[in-house]
Amino acid sequence: MPKCGACGEEGHIKTSKKCPKHEYNTNPHPNIDRLLKKSNLTEEECLLARAYYKELIDEDVGHRKHQLEIGKKYGKTPRSQGMCQEASQGIIRQVFNNVLKDKTCRNPDSGDLVSDTKGKIECKVKTCKNNAPGSCGGKQGWDTFVFGDFSKYLEDRYKIMMTQIPDTDPKWDQFKPANKDISKKLIRPRLNWNEVLLAFKDDIEVIYEGSYDGIFT
Fold it and tell me: How many Cα atoms within 13 Å fall on the side-chain side of residue 14?
């Protein structure tokens, strides 16, 4: 793992000017966005991407735990705050890169992820323990759909599932608006977790279940 340029400890971006243990750095590398759009990263670039996402995850975890501590102090349960989209998609991308050995999975100019072998990848992640519906924009499309169950992310547990049924398949019609003409009725398809997993139970593959560090071992 790269070392922090400020404190010398491993696990931080080595080019950081400030130690993220003391002040969170939202852009630890000036070329990180461009780097994450590349496929087939070098070993050094992979380490940088891993460290960047780890900082995002640690920030989310720390923020959520702090909220829970305040809530406990005052006898109130705060609203559930989900992990930021960039961090959750980063975990999924790294599962594709390291577990599935798909080094072409990368961040596109628009959308969630893209791969030379899996096509356009739509990612939906839940970071709370209820099954309240998520949604997709009426004009979104995909070749591969990935479900991330990160409801135990505070305990460093992640479960990622995938189906390669594209959005054009009739199986998805039950989750689309009754009026398919979205130019007349802009309604976002509602994706209840239990209903989606039941509908695609024969087509869903669990591609990873474990800790963040386990993605790289």
Answer: 10
Q: CB within 8 A of 52, min separation 6: which ones?
A: 13, 28, 29, 32, 36, 90
Neighbours of 183 (CB within 10 A): 7
Q: Are residues 162 and 210 in the same domain?
A: yes
pTM: 0.80
Q: Name the one residue in this structure whose structure tokens are 């959308």.
A: 111
Distance CA 126, CA 142 (A): 19
Q: List the domain range (segments joined by +) for residue 110.
A: 102-216
- Which tokens is 185 given? 């009725």
User: Which among 164, 165, 126 has a CA at the least distance from the CA of 148?
Assistant: 126
- The answer to the question of residue 42 being in a domain is yes
Cα(15)–Cα(2) distance, rounded to whole angstroms? 9
Q: Nearest 5 degrees, angle CA 138-CA 145-CA 153?
A: 105
Angle between helices 85-98 and 43-74 (to 10 degrees): 140
Residues 120 and 208 in one domain: yes
Task: Let me know whether 114 and 49 are in one domain.
Answer: no
Q: Which of the residues in the chain have pLDDT under 50?
A: 1-6, 12-27, 184-186
Kindly state the tokens that stand for 5: 């340029």
Our separate counts of H helices and E strands in the chain read 4, 7
